[in-house]
Structure formats: structure tokens, C-alpha cells
Amino acid sequence: MRTFLIRLGLLLLLPGLAGSSPATQTGSENSPDFDEIRELVRAHLAGTSDSDVNRASVEGLLNSLRGKVRLVGGTNDSTRTNTSPISKVTIIEDQIVCFRIGQVSASLPEEIRRQCKSITATNKLIGLVLDLRFARGDDYAAAAATADLFVPSQRPLLDWGNGPVKSVEKADALNWPVAVLVNTETTGSAEALAAVLREAGVALVLGGTTRGAAMTAQDFPLKNGQQLRIATSPVKLGSGEVLSKGVKPDIEVTISPELERTFLDDPYVITTKTNLASAPTAPATATNRSSRRRPNEADLVRARRDGFSLDGEFPVGLDAEPEKPVLRDPTLARAVDLLKGLAVVRRARP
After folding, report:
1. What's 92's DSSP letter?
2. Are the beta carbons of 130 and 176 closer than 8 angstroms?
3. Which of 43, 123, 203, 246 has the smallest count of CB within 10 Å of its CB?
4. 153, 172 in Cβ contact below 8 A?
5. What pairing do the DSSP bridges indicate for beta strands 178-182 and 127-131?
6. What is the pLDDT of residues 188-236, one digit of tens each?
7. In a shared domain, residues 174 and 257
8. What is the pLDDT of residues 135-150, one digit of tens each?
């Protein structure tokens, strides 16, 4: 089963460039000179001070290279957090657990193991989803330790500069099929986690190609007291494959980041937002959590006992079976279908 699973620009001052790279706009060889644009804006944009232009230049540069370059040590330093690496746990149809991971950090492996132990006390799981969309991190030891949870034998996992780190042979590895969800905003150690799980043959990756920021970094001091953290060396898989070009999914699902964020809040929500290339086939209704008259076996027995016709409407007094909510998040829906299919295959095999 395990084998089977196998530049830059003033973005705030030039909104036409926002959200895309210079190469996307004109081709990298034809990109305008950064300093030339900066000086023209300073000289001719009315009401704009030198500090305004400088701030926009810095923010635009950092946004364009997000995941690979960032400021640390300021009030908005995202590395300073004591929150749990798992931001949300969803149990789907009582048999698939989805962990929404915000950051791959040191406590993630133990948190996953603890949650799995708690959930399996009441639920018989057939699969596990690691949702790494928008996830970040620069703790590659945490990525390796998390992957190690699922790998029963000893094998090289990751190398971030000091030689490959190997998994430990164990009899209590988590052995459910795993689906990993990623997108273009999956960065750093979250990318590495997705890649190493796939290479180890324990997971399939769904979504969009990751950012390509799985790299170790150096901090360079700045005059204002902050530091600029720049990715300098690529991280490698145990096989020697370099991850700096991003992780391409096994199953690609195209969806806009805006809509994807909506589904992260509620994967069952019915939305009128567009830019969704792969959508669930279930029809939209006024509500996704309604109930309808669908009798179960107990209803049939009770109706016959009380003399009601089984060919007509059931009496109002009978309990209605709630309609199952429909997953509207296309990436998660594909993952759930995949895990269900693998469970069927597993049961059918001798």
C-alpha cells in the first residue's frame, strides 16, 4: 500500500504588477530597471515622500520574494508565535481526519500523534489529510520528525546542510494512507514535509505547485535593528533531489488563493466566488446543512407497525435523517475521494 501511495517591483505603487512576477509581465530580459522606476516615482508622483517610496519599495520587494526573504525581529515577525502548529482538526464522515497546519514547528510531531491517539479512541480511521496550504516554517528538523511518524523503516529523509537525517525503524508508525494538500503559498519546511512524505511512499500530494522556498537561511543585520533573513542554501530530500523549484503535486487542483482561504474557514460553504477550475459536482442549494425526509431502517419498521403505507409520504412524527453535508472545497474533496478509494482497495486485497 505504501508503494502504491506513492525582481522585483514597487507593488504598492504599481498595482498592475501586484501578484505576478516581472517575468510574467514582460519577460525577465525586458524588465525595467528597479532604480530607474524608483527615481521616476520619487520625482514625479505628487504627494509622495522619499519615505513613502522607500517603504513601498521594501514592501514590494519582500512581497515578491516572500518565502525566500523576510524581515525578522520586528513587531510583525511571524516567527514569534506560541500558537499550536495545528490550527484546526476536522473529522470527515467519522473516518477521515484532516489536520489544518499553519506552521511546521517543533511541537508538530507530538501534536499529530496525540490527536491521532485521541481520535482513534472513538473513530475507526481510514485515512489522514495534512492540509499544508498557506503553511510555512523554517524548522526542517520538525519536518523530518513529522515525516518519521509515518515511516516504519530506516531511510534518509532530509538534508538541510549537515548530512541526511534518517527515520527510525519502528513498529508503531502511523499507517493510514495520507493525502497532503499544498498550494503556491506553501513554503519552507511545509514544502519539505510534503515532499519527504511522498518520497517515502506514504502520501500523495494534491493542489498546486509550492513556492520553492525550502532553503536554509542566513540573517543579515540592518541599520534599524532588524535583520533580513535570506534563503541561501537549498534543502535536499534523502535521494539528493533539491527542493528549491517547489513541489509539484501528483494531482493538480486549480483554485484561486482567495477562494481557497474561504474553504479553509469552512470546506462546506456554498460560495458565489469564481476562479474555481475544479468544482464538486453536487448541486448548490439554499443551505448545505438541511435535513430531508429519508427514512432509515427504524423508520420503515415503525411505519409498517403503525399502519402507514410505505409508498407514500412518511408521517411528520417520524425522525428525519440529516442530509450529509457536501464538501465544497475541491482539493479536500478530491483527497477524501482518494482516501475512500484506497480504503476499498485495502479491504479487497487479501
Report:
1. E
2. no
3. 43
4. no
5. parallel
6. 999 999 999 999 999 999 999 999 999 988 889 999 999 998 888 889 9
7. yes
8. 999 999 999 999 999 9
Tell me if residue 15 falls in helix, strand or coil.
Answer: helix
**What's the Cα-to-Cα distance from 307 to each of 296, 302, 311, 321, rounded to whole Å?**
17, 9, 12, 21
| Calpha distance 165→342 (Å, rounded) | 30
Distance CA 102, CA 231 (A): 20
Contact status, residue 182 vs residue 133, Cβ threshold 8 Å: yes
Name the residue range of residue 45's domain.
15-64
- The string of DSSP letters for 24-46 reads HHT-GGGPPPHHHHHHHHHHHST
Decide if 275 contacts 259 (C-beta within 8 A). yes
Rounded-to-integer distance, Cα 128 and Cα 199, Å: 17
List the grid coordinates of 205. Answer: 500530494
143: how many CB neighbours lie within 10 A of its CB?
31
Query: Which residues, at least 6 apart from 152, have a Cβ–Cβ distance to it below 8 Å?
Result: 169, 170, 171, 173, 175
44 and 100 in a common domain: no
Total number of domains constituting the chain:
2
Q: What is the pTM of this model?
A: 0.73
Is residue 83 within 8 A of residue 318, CB to CB? The reply is: no
**CA distances in angstroms from 233 to 147, 212, 236, listed in the order given:** 21, 12, 10
